[in-house]
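Subject line: Sequence and fold of a protein, written as structure tokens
Enclosed: The protein record, placed directly beneath this head.
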Amino acid sequence: MSDIYALPDSGLLAFLLFDWLDIGHQDERETWLAMIDMAQRLAADAFLPHYREADITEPRLETDGVHILPAIQTALNLYREMGLFGANFSEEQGGLGLPFAVSLAMQSNFAAANVSTSAYPKLTAANARLILAFGTPAQIEQFAQPEIEGRWFGTMCLSEPQAGSSLADVRTRAILDGEDALGARYRLTGNKMWISGGDQDASDNIVHLVLAKVARSDGSLPEGSKGISLFIVPKILPDGSRNDIAVAGINHKMGFRGTSNCLLNFGESDGAIGWRVGAERDGLVQMFMMMNEARIDVGMGAAALAYRGYRLSLRYAQERSQGRAIGVRGGEPLPILTHPDVRRMVLQQKAYAEGALALCIYCGHLVDRADEEAEALLALLTPIAKSWPSEFGVMANDIAIQVHGGYGYTRDFAVEQLWRDNRLNPIHEGTTGIQAIDLLGRKLLFSDGGSLALLRERIAATTARASAFAEWDGLGTILLTFWDRIEAVIAALRTRGGAEAFDDATLFLRAFGHGVVAWLWLDQAMSALALADPQPRIGTVYACRFFFETELPQALGWLSIVAAHSDLVRNTPERAFA
């Protein structure tokens, strides 16, 4: 059986988009579903076949730049020919005009098939969208348009060797060098680390979006994040000459190996030429637009990897015969899926993987709605959309290896590579700990509580639907009680105040994420039961019950630790680690 079986099922995606979220009209849905089917075929035919090869044949740095596996370029050429670089850009911008939620559903197939190849168009789309939002008409025509067409690729250059997530400490400097048709022109010098797609030979050009600080008249740089500006710095300049950008090295990674990851030196000679985007010192605010889209994309990539691992381990558990029922002697070995422990592991993967898919597509739907309430709710849920699929997607992939037993620990089966690929996702685009501080701080403790109130309204609407079913009313009550507990913990932390309130922020993030996913599972179950024939989605019903019975109780334990507010970790002396 082909591994296409393990890519996100179009029936599941159609349920999420149309039956659950009620996106689009019937004629639109038929077109979108045909495009999702097309995406799955392309993912299976062009992305999936070189998944293992891209892991083995890493990008290599030669005198003329970085070379990636030729099969990656072949796949991305086909992707471009189908117009998919511009999938969710408007037709006026040269795109296909798909809703973001639909494009995410399509992307899930490419990420599941080959996440490292799919990273190039995802970064490019986010790059182009930022230029469209903040760039001048000339910058849009010169840089964003070729990206939407898929001829040029894009990157985001934030981190530096001495400043990973702490962007306030970036030292890349920009010196004004005049002005031309593309805007204020600068010369940039500095180093950027961990740049995905930083150099490659699959596109005609690379558009780098670079965070840097404009030097003062005395040569000093402004301190802090408010001094950061954003610049477009292309590999090839408009006149066809090479910009002053050098690849200082390639990072050799545990996974995601098909995506080149580079240390870039800007300005080794006369300074790399770049054009400022928007106003000076607005760079970080602008970049957050790209980062927030990237965070949802990271979540979807993690969900897709978890889903593929789940489907592969399900098939393995159905086909692998070993052991007999407890207490039974003799007879033929049984498929291992009949054993309770294996059955639980497979169902746990389903709850994680499909719960993560639903979370990301729901956030994509909020992007499409773009009204005030949707934007407030999206801001609250973005740290969850990035971190929950990343953390629990890796756990799902870990379980997939366990289901495969010894075979899962070998390179003969894809599950070990899926785990390695997914292990990046809790780290990049803001680590889990950073997402936790963002959620607990800016989104909750330091806010007016409006976005949380919106979330509670939607949870209440779901539990009201559940109350119409006697067998589901109890789960609605459990969910409301859980969220009351969340709010009580928030109130206690707000009263405590200070840095100590963040001691257990990651545990709080984990519990909050479980509460969100529990709500989404219950909401999906209600939509599944409302179908004329709910049997095709019966798995949604059982996965929902599983999550409430086995996962949500664990989240209560995490909240108890947060509420206890032990000072043990904070006060453990450094000598205790010796």
About this structure: The two ends are 52 Å apart (CA to CA).
